[in-house]
Known about the structure:
The complex is a heterotrimer. In chain A, 76% of the residues lie in helices and 0% in strands. Chain A contains 13 helices and no strands.
Amino acid sequence: MAKSEFWKKHENLYFAVTNGKVIFGLIIFMSILALAIFGPMVAKYDYDEFAGPGYMPPSKDFWFGTTLMGKDVFTRVVYGLRSTFVVGFVGGTIATFVGLIIGFLAGYYSGKLTDEVLMMITNIFLVIPTLALLIILSAYLPYRGILSQSVIIGLTAWTWTARAVRSQTMSLKNQEFVNLSRISAAPVTKIIAEDIAANMFSYVFMVYIIQFTGTILAAVSLEFLGLGPTQGISLGLVMQNAVNWNAIQLGLWWWAILPGLLLTILIVSLYFINTGLDEVFNPRLREM
Amino acid sequence: MPENVLEIKDLKAYYKILKGDVKALDGVTFNVRRGEILGIAGESGCGKSTLASALILRKKPLQYISGEAKLLGTDIMKLSEKQFKKMRLKNISIIPQYALDAFSPTKKIRIFISDLVREHGIRPNRKFFKKVEERLDMINLDPSALDRYSIELSGGMKQRMIMIISTILDPDFIIADEITSALDVSSQRFVANMLVKLRDEGITGSAIFITHDLSILYQIAERIMIMYAGHFAEIGPTDEIVSNPRHPYTKALIGSLPQVGIQYKENRLSGIKGTPPHLLNIGEGCRFRFRCPYKTSKCEETPQREQITDNHFVSCWNWKENFSDSRPSGGEKDGE
Amino acid sequence: MKKYLGKKIFIYLITFFFAVTIDWAIPRFMPGDPIQILLSRFQGMEGGREIIEAQITASFGLDRPLLEQYFNFWGSLFKGDLGISIYTFPKPVMEVINEAIIFDILLLVPSILLSWIVGNKLGAFSGVNKKADKYTMPFFYFLTSSPYFWFAVVVVFFFGVQLPWFPINSAYSSTMRPGFNLAFILDFLHHWFLPFLTLFLVQLGGWAIGMRNMIIYEMGSNYSKYMESLGASEKLIRKYAFRNGVLPQVTGLAIRLGNIIAGALTTQIVFSYPGLGYILLKAILNQDYFLVQGTFLFIVIFVLLANFLVDIIYMFIDPRVRFSYSGEV
């Protein structure tokens, strides 16, 4: 049994690493991640430094040009990317984790009170416009850091995951092999760990990717509204500055467009990875 | 000489996947006569549903490989999609395995039927629906069912509705694919009898009744064909198949049927030890040889189809030696 | 059917209750003291401090027990009294919001409807057309991955600056006075177009992807197989598949409304378009807590109402809701 499971995973792994979409998305994602990690080390300036004359388009010295005041856009972007990735990973993890627990419990005890209550809570969070909630939470925080931003985003973003995990659990719950475990009187935790979790791993991974992108987008929007971390730099803040200083009207397109372009490409790459993985884990789609 | 509605000659259809070919239907030959109900039986994976798909709708990864399938004289395997589409529902139709799931949830039944027949140039007018209602009546369905959505119908009602829809244009040939498998015993009887009635009233011409349940075939099929692992095993009149099978597999199948009135103490139910082989890239040879108690070295070669009588054919090298004049024992005695 | 609606209404009421409570609770329980900050800002203002202090006492009721403050809050809510805005002092918050809402509706309703309709059609087309699909999908991905405000910036760049076809600020020219005359309407549309285009295009990506996936799924369903087995043309099967694929798209609309409105908020900022989003930003930057609170509430109400509307529509298009006993689809 263990061996055939290994081969099964092996087969999926094989498909995963040879899937065109996954490879394409992964390359782009890794490149941008590398940019976030190594960019600040390579950057010639500091992100708040007045590095040179303002109003400079992208050039050899200033790869993404400079802001109106003369700060280097590239430096600001790669530092901002760091904060973006941190929020994405932390917030995404929290959201996935919370969603998993709630979704799983609701699905496993579906039909009972636990399920009803959890679903009620989920529906409330689903309907409340998340950004508005985040705005009101952020607006009153005396100090906003990257971590607190990640936490509040993560704590409001889990609803989709909860619902998805719940329905997946419900469908798995009814499948034969789980019932077999039940009949054999295996403890609940064993059933969870071996039967259900093993099958859900791929699903959870894909869900995590979605939560990651959602978190990043929420974070960037908050930053753009001026509710991002009070210190430091973030992508949304760079763009807010650009828009506030009428960058476009004044012709500094690189200041306003490049940061967002990088972010969009990052999210697109994750979309590709997810779609590719979907094909890997759902062989039916492979035929398409 | 009775006319053949369907003539299948050495038909092959494989599922082509990355790893290779799953030879699910690998050279089957048989005919279906006018007005006949031919039962096709075999365990899961024997290729009977593949046969149904091969005839009516081949979807990737199922591909036609070789062989003939002549419906009323025309080889339907060689027809283009466009040409064959015209034959569907009119000349050849199917009552599918997934009947309970065969309706779109957002269309009323009446609309569905109208749309469907319009595709074949039939006008869904009052006269037409009168005929539909007559059929519904025949099958114990209230005409009000037509104005319902599928969610409003019970499983049994849906099954019967599907039977009516699939035969609404009086097809010459109908494939009934496991139409009783999901039903309780009394519903099974009803549905099986309905199929016979449709044939008797001339609504359908001939039929193949695909199932794994031999006991139903005994009731309604004139001839039975046994398939095993994508190969043809045996075909013959129902009585002969049941009382005098010639293929080891058929013999084992018949032998594993519970008999009424006999208790476990007296006769053990014998199953057939082992499981069918994997059909992925399977090689030559009789596919039953891995489980066959009568296997010989000749069985490494794929057996030819041999004639026993006018109506009885078998595909086994050793049928003469094993079962020339045997009567089946029913159940194997203790000690087997 | 009644059960379905009943359940939904119940959730919306609880959500509203929850939102109001949060709205009331946050300023009071956050560390630090926004009230004092507020007060300190009005040190120099003539008569301002007294009015603000009165306001605060009234709505925050600082000297009263918490529970009473809470009920007072609800009370003033029903009276339509959301306090006085600081940043547009002495305008009442309600008035500020009322002026902004019409611009939101004019922006949101057409963009949501049109992008949903066009997006679904494009997605269905992409779903059945494998060749086109290879090129359209990356394009849709790009659209849906774009942050709204960033896309707005791109749109401004191309159609407002490079090709100066459209103005990029406000809802109407400063020389115009709002009124139902042709000149004003044209001017408004001229200003409205770019924000509309932004919302339209970004949403479109999402709908197209969704419908494309649904069509593929539905075309592989058993009823599609049955219809094909009985000789139905691909056109007919597509029609049935589309009709079924639309259902989760409607549900999706309800779910994404919050997200879409959030996008509209940030888009407005780029264009200085005077909807709730723009107001909200100004309120935040000016630490106008009353306005922030009021805007939050209105956004929530807006989303809840829109959600409710979509739920009602869904009830009519999915027969299973009418006949299912659980009330859950």
